[in-house]
Design goal:
364 residues; alpha+beta; Aminopeptidase; 3 domains; 30% helix; binds coenzyme A
Length: 364
């Protein structure tokens, strides 16, 4: 057996064929059409396979993402398309491949690794834990918004420039090129809903579906709250059925508006996260605190524990997974009553939990 290793250029098609057979057997398109930025020749060095006798037995891909947020610029290694050939399961191949992806993420200065799965226990063995926050709203009923002059469209032939312009206004987003946005717009089974100003400017957009996933889910959106609410109202009328909008926790103004409608609200996790460069992330977080005028924030890793807090008001955690849930949520340190002083909580809440979010097109 060979690997984990990256496939050569000439093996690229063979790897895609393996993935299409295993993961997209019912689709008419290749998995590379769903993850156009992960499965490109330029990301070949981040694909990992184990092969035997020129046959691919196991695979995973890592896609580094740079996520800008108001306080911190994160680097996250998204891991996806983890699969082992049926006849070679239970031999540790996927575990080896994921460990190698974590090594790649570390070498490429990622702060964390993240993945999306329902095999929670499988990834817990490797140190991942459900963390971060996501709020989803099921739009149960039609709703009215204030009269407006917007024109709505379901035509998916929208200029990537227009989408990119609104996307850039998000307070938390990944660094994307126009070309990447163009590729994302071409993902099979993507529905694009847009709202346009009378002068022809894009006012809001909402993206539903992504290949075989996220049918009925709006996983990317952009625009001001009032324009988005008008677009969401249009979508509910158009679909004649409930649908779901996925939101980051920090989109508080939008969340408040959505709560006023007949919706079912669900609190979830962003994904399964594992720390890969704790010291680097801690340095970024400390810098963010200092920028807020807080110089006595403590976040340290000791041989068998993590220590964090403000000044002398400190708390100790032994599990790395608890630390992840403390930094990215959903653990609420206020409700735990672990700090003595109210001042400590107020200082910590300036930065924590971190405003961290990955939009749907970036999930792999
Ligand atoms: C999940 C999958 C990738 C595991 O691959 P693998 O090469 O067999 O994994 P490994 O041999 O490294 O690990 C197997 C171990 O994980 C455990 N495991 C496997 N599937 C599991 C699951 N669904 N939940 C919990 N543990 C699981 C096994 O019990 C075994 O544990 P052990 O080592 O203590 O005996 C493989 O079953 C597969 O390809 N499934 C279909 C595609 C898929 O679901 N991919 C995940 C997408 S997120």
């Amino acid at each position: 057996m060979e690997g984990p290793r990256s496939p050569s250029e000439t093996e690229f098609t063979q790897v895609l064929n393996f993935l299409d057979k295993k993961l997209r057997s019912e689709s008419t398109w290749s998995i590379s059409a769903e993850y156009p930025t992960a499965f490109t020749a330029s990301n070949l060095h981040n694909m990992r396979i184990i092969s035997d006798d020129e046959k691919v037995l196991s695979h995973a891909v890592m896609k580094p993402l740079i996520i800008k947020s108001p306080h911190v610029i994160f680097k996250a290694g998204a891991i996806g398309s983890v699969v082992t050939d049926d006849d070679h399961r239970g031999q540790g191949l996927s575990t080896q491949i994921i460990q190698d992806c974590l090594k790649l993420a570390k070498e490429q200065s990622c702060d964390i690794a993240i993945l999306w799965t329902d095999l929670f226990d499988f990834y817990r063995r490797i140190g991942f834990e459900l963390a971060g926050s996501e709020i989803s709203f099921v739009i149960e009923d039609k709703f009215e918004v204030a009269p407006n002059q917007l024109r709505f469209s379901i035509d998916s032939r929208v200029s990537p420039d227009a989408i990119h312009r609104l996307y850039s206004n998000h307070s938390v987003n990944s660094v994307r090129t126009l070309d990447e946005t163009r590729k994302f717009l071409s993902i099979p089974l993507t529905k694009v809903y847009t709202a346009w100003e009378p002068n022809g400017q894009l006012a809001a957009y909402a993206i539903e579906g992504k290949g075989i996933d996220l049918d009925g889910y709006i996983h990317e959106w952009g625009g001001s709250v009032s324009k988005l609410m008008a677009l969401f109202s249009f979508i509910r009328n158009h679909k004649q059925n409930p649908y779901v909008i996925i939101c980051p926790n920090h989109a508080q103004n939008l969340i408040e508006e959505l709560k006023k409608q007949t919706v079912t609200m669900n609190q979830g996790f962003l994904g399964m996260i594992k720390l890969v460069n704790f010291d680097q992330l801690a340095a970024k977080i400390k810098r963010a605190f200092r920028a807020e005028g807080i110089s006595d924030f403590v976040l340290e890793k000791h041989p068998d524990c993590f220590v964090f807090g403000v000044g002398q008001d400190l708390y100790t955690l032994t599990k790395e997974t608890d630390m992840v849930r403390m930094l990215f949520g959903p653990i609420n340190f206020r409700s735990l009553g672990i700090f003595e002083k109210e001042e400590t909580l107020q200082k910590m809440e300036k930065i924590l939990p971190l405003d961290f979010w990955i939009w749907g097109w970036d999930s792999i």
